Amino acid sequence: MLTIIFALALIWVAGKFLVFGIKAAWGIAKIFWTVILLPVAILVLFVMGFVYLAIPLLIIGAIVAIVRGRSMG
Q: Which of 25, 49, 45, 73 is nearest to 61 (CA)?
């Protein structure tokens, strides 16, 4: 009986850690994308001559930043 209780508690704790790990990884990925990858990608597009693609991406990013900034406050 004690073994069954231990096994159920172990599965419950492992499930909680799995959910926490997925949430943490998703948060880190969002931060990495918005802080590092997106500005670098826009800069590379601009330097390579894809200005007509970089400018709309920059405008869309600015609009999203303004809208999300106002909705959080």
A: 45
Rounded to an integer, the average pLDDT of 10-29 is: 93
- Chain position carrying tokens 């909680």: 16
Secondary structure of 10-29 in HEC code, one letter for each residue:
HHHHHHHHHHHHHHHHHHHH
pLDDT at 64: 85
Whole-structure pTM value: 0.55
Residue 20: is its pLDDT beyond 60? yes
The two three-digit tokens of residue 65, written as one number? 């930043």
Q: What number of CA atoms fall less than 13 Å from residue 39's CA on the CB side?
A: 7
